[in-house]
Each structure stands twice: as C-alpha cells, then as structure tokens.
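QA checklist item 7 of 12: single-chain prediction sanity check.
[x] sequence parsed
[x] length recorded as 165
[x] structure emitted
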Amino acid sequence: MKICFLGGTFDPPHVGHLKIALECLKQCDKFIFIPSKQSPHKISQPYFSSHHRLAMLNMLASNYDNIAVDPFEINSIDEVSYTINTVRYLTEKYEGADLCMVVGSDLINNIESWKKWNEINDKVSVICFSRIGYEDVSFKDKKFIFLDSVNLDVSSSFIKKEMIS
C-alpha cells in the first residue's frame, strides 16, 4: 500500500490542501492530513485552536473514503511537532507501507535542516508541489518527485489576513 501524508498547521485548511490530496491520490492508495500542534519553524501560535483545525480538516476529508485525518501530532504530549516523530509513528502504524511525505516548495530549500533529516529521508519518499512565489528551488534530490500540476495561489496566511481585515 502506498500512503501519502501532509503535515502542517492547517490554520485554516483550504481548497488548496484538498487539491494536493486529490493530486497525490493519483499516485497512492491513501492520503493523510496530519495537523501539527506547533510547528518548530513558526514562532506564533496557530490562530485557530487544535480542536477547530481538526474539525475543519475532518469536514474537508469527509466526502472521500481514501482521505483521512490523523490527530497524532495534536494529541502528542510534545509541545512542538517534529516530522521525525510523525514518520516513526506512521512507519509503525502502517508497517510495510510505502510512505510519501508531501511538502511545498516553500519548505524544500531548508528541508535538510529538519530534525533527524537523514532518518526521515531514509524512511519516506518526498513529493514536492509548487507554491507560487517559491519557484526558486535549489535543493533537488534525485529521489524527490516534483509536482507542477498543483501550483497553489492560496495560503492559510492569506485567508487569515482577509478574515481579520
């Protein structure tokens, strides 16, 4: 079984996240959203509570049998969510599955700085999708799959900014 997963704050989740899931499902059997409690790369707390972000993601995924939401990071006792812990969890939960981590091009140039990056890279494949404004990808690992079919011009930050103004 091939499983793709996308972690993030999802503050809030939006149609772009669903587009990523649907595009990945062309290459895998199951797609999992994994909302984080607190990203190690973000200083500010999420605008929406964990409970609300989880509920919104569940609504986003509710019409699809092969899209799931896993609250592993939100339910963790750890205050900060590190990808390596999620990868270890998924590797154990879906023993024998081919795991693919999905990231945006906004993160790819700094991916080697992630905690225990070498272990992550050994355990999962990486799918990178394009984000408008982040086309300058200098990190090109031969193992990575780059998807230009989802070129997102929407972000949770933009949605929050429009809500608040």
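[x] summary fact logged: The chain has a mean pLDDT of 85.
[ ] second reviewer sign-off
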